[in-house]
Specification:
The complex is a heterodimer. Chain A has a single domain, classed as Thiamin diphosphate (ThDP)-binding fold, Pyr/PP domains (Rossmann fold, 3-Layer(aba) Sandwich), CATH 3.40.50. Helices cover 38% and strands 11% of the residues of chain A. In chain A, helix 9 links the parallel strand 6 and strand 7. In chain A, helix 1 crosses helix 3, helix 1 crosses helix 4 and helix 3 packs across helix 9. The mean pLDDT of chain A is 97. Chain B is an alpha/beta fold. Chain B folds into two domains: 164 residues, 3-Layer(aba) Sandwich (Rossmann fold); 127 residues, Rossmann fold, CATH 3.40.50.920. In chain B, 38% of the residues lie in helices and 20% in strands. Chain B has twelve helices and 14 strands. In chain B, the strands form three sheets. Chain B has a seven-stranded mixed β-sheet with strand order 3-2-4-5-7-6-12, with helices on both faces. In chain B, strand 6, helix 7 and strand 7 form a beta-alpha-beta unit. In chain B, helix 8 crosses helix 12. Classes of the chains: A alpha/beta, B alpha/beta.
């Protein structure tokens, strides 16, 4: 595991990448991206067993699916800074002729992206398929998935949640970005999610919670605990409480920055709260 | 005229089941998924032979498409099975994003297509699926005509990398193509040579086209009959070569005339050799309950309708 001060530097640098990507093209989704920065850094730098070479054949390593594809800025930044493609390519986010589409796609051959996502609610199903294939291949690595909490309003998720428990897909960890916000407002006001912990449990999942998904140590320890619960006959769900817009004071605790880019002045303030660490792209 | 013999009526879905059984034995990467219609799709034998490679997903087609997409990661070749309606319209966005746009090697196998589903009625009789699937970039669209061809197509698509929509049906129909045929994706099959009119048919209408050609022959009309089993990519050369000779076309399909084979043929002709065309297809309508024969008669999808269309299009030359 890389040392903690490096990881903390990386988190700040990823936040800068997120802000600069969406600012440059004046579009994209900074709020959820900032809220999941610690999770992505923990996943790609600490938790996942990954092969060298980024060959994308899906065999002999842990693999990850992003279901809530709109938080692509954090995904792209962490992929690039984990070696999947040149960091400079972040300059092309949402530009024409770019591999870094607004929502992730395999269409342009971007290493690290295994399925297109963005139309919500499809990631758990895809992850189950990949997990089933791992079992057929006698590959004991894991499948990790991140989905949004608001995204659970899509019905397909519950088909998938029912299937995974019923078929003992226990090499799968689904983390829910539980920030309580979606584009129209608080999930509580748009469509209340009810008791997610009880719902996943009732469907037959092993459920655990990470109370502060923006605390790196807590995320690492929580996800390690989740990993230890795999292989025991149940899929594992981690309800990870995060703050949308984390790390930029005026973006926190609101849905306002779900899908809006900062202007020049706002960017400057946001970046000043996250001073350069590992070098901007 | 060539003579074609019905070796005994069989359903195309059983051809799919037989093809899948054979694939199960020869290709370990082939996996099958079904949404609670294993018997209807004739997937039982595959399921019994390879329980570890058969995935019952329940009545949850959207999830099935997503799982199938995911199973390709790590090298499996998933074949999904359910009715055509639930294989397409119900799950269009799952196919679009997770399979087509992601270019996943999934074979979407769809039974009970069209009016010949029969008594269940319009909710289940999809007549729009060819259009839906052919509009997806990169999707191969195949509609087979009999048991033997469906079996051959099922086996062939496992060797083709990329998403495929394979459409077949419920009723027993004439089985007349060779048992040992090689199925070539995108390659039309000329069944009759003729000079007055080209009849281009797909699926259950191919046998009807052959019957129509016999009737026309008795009236002194020479009809060329082409079996287009692959609607996308369409065998343009076969269409244009035949039209250059006959000067007019009848297309015949168990599908709405919007979005079907007929439109694909019309586009090829419009771009290269505009010629009169008549469409034997449903006329922008839903179906209804009835026997397959009654429905095909009421909605004008049989040999008699093809003969009428042929005489009409010849008069327009």
């Amino acid at each position: 595991m890389p040392d903690i001060s490096y990881l903390n530097d990386l988190i700040i640098q990823v936040r800068r990448d997120i802000l600069r990507q969406v600012h440059k093209v004046n579009s994209g989704h900074p709020g959820g991206s900032l809220g999941c920065t610690e999770f992505f850094v923990a996943l790609f730098q600490v938790l996942m067993e990954r092969k060298d070479g980024f060959d994308m054949d899906g065999k002999g390593e842990d693999i990850f699916f992003l279901s809530n594809g709109h938080i692509s800025p954090v995904f792209y930044s962490v992929l690039a800074r984990s070696g999947y493609f040149p960091v400079n390519e972040l300059n092309t986010f949402r530009h024409i002729n770019s591999r870094l589409q607004g929502h992730p796609t395999t269409h342009e051959g971007l290493p690290g992206v295994r399925v297109a996502s963005g139309s919500l609610g499809q990631g758990i199903s895809v992850s189950i398929g990949a997990a089933e294939t791992k079992k057929l291949n006698n590959d004991d690595h894991l499948v990790y998935t991140l989905c949004g909490d608001g995204e659970l309003q899509e019905g397909q998720n519950w088909e998938a949640i029912m299937y995974a428990a019923g078929n003992k897909v226990d090499n799968l960890i689904v983390t829910v970005d539980y920030n309580g916000q979606q584009i129209d407002g608080a999930t509580e006001n748009v469509l209340p999610l009810g008791n997610l912990n009880a719902k996943f449990k009732a469907f037959g999942w092993d459920v655990m919670e990470i109370n502060d998904g923006n605390n790196l140590t807590e995320v690492i320890e929580g996800m390690k605990e989740a990993k230890s619960r795999t292989g025991k006959g149940k899929p594992v769900c981690v309800l990870m409480k995060t703050v949308m817009g984390n790390g930029v004071d005026f973006m926190m605790h609101t849905h306002a920055w779900h899908g809006k880019a900062p202007n020049d002045e706002q960017l400057e303030i946001a970046l000043s709260q996250n001073p350069e660490t590992l070098g901007d792209y | 005229m060539k003579k074609y013999t019905d070796s005994g009526k069989k359903d195309t879905r059983s051809g799919f089941g037989a093809g899948l059984t054979e694939l199960g034995k020869k290709n370990e990467d082939v996996v099958a998924l079904c949404a609670d219609l294993t018997g209807s799709l004739k997937m039982d034998e595959f399921k019994d032979n390879h329980p570890d490679r058969f995935f019952q997903v329940g009545i949850a087609e959207a999830n099935m498409m997503g799982i199938a997409a995911g199973m390709t990661i790590g090298g499996k070749i998933p074949f999904t099975g359910t009715f055509a309606n639930f294989s397409t319209g119900r799950v269009y966005d799952q196919i679009r994003q997770s399979i087509a746009y992601s270019h996943k090697n999934v074979k979407i196998c769809a039974s009970h297509a069209g009016l010949t589903l029969g008594e269940d009625g319009a909710t289940h009789q999809i007549l729009e699926d060819i259009g839906l699937m052919k509009m997806l970039p990169g999707m191969t669209v195949i509609n087979t005509c009999d048991y033997n061809q469906t079996k051959a197509a099922t086996i062939a698509i496992a060797d083709h990398f990329g998403p495929v929509y394979l459409r077949f049906g419920r009723p027993k129909v004439a089985n007349f193509t060779p048992e040992d045929q090689t199925f070539e994706i995108g390659k039309a099959v000329q069944l009759q040579e003729g000079s007055d009119v080209t009849i281009i048919a797909t699926g259950h209408l191919v046998w009807e086209a052959l019957l129509a050609a016999e009737t026309l022959n008795e009236q002194g009309v020479s009809a060329e009959v082409i079996n287009i089993h692959t609607i996308k990519p369409l065998d343009k050369d076969a269409v244009l070569k035949s039209v250059a000779k006959t000067g007019c076309v009848v297309t015949a399909e168990e599908h709405n005339y919007y979005g079907g084979l007929g439109e694909s043929v019309a586009r090829v002709m419009a771009e290269n050799n505009p010629s009169p065309q008549e469409f034997v297809a449903t006329q922008d309508t839903f179906g209804e309950s009835g026997t397959p024969e009654q429905l095909m008669d009421k909605y004008g999808l049989n040999a008699e309708a093809i003969v009428k269309a042929a005489l009409k299009v010849i008069a327009r030359k």
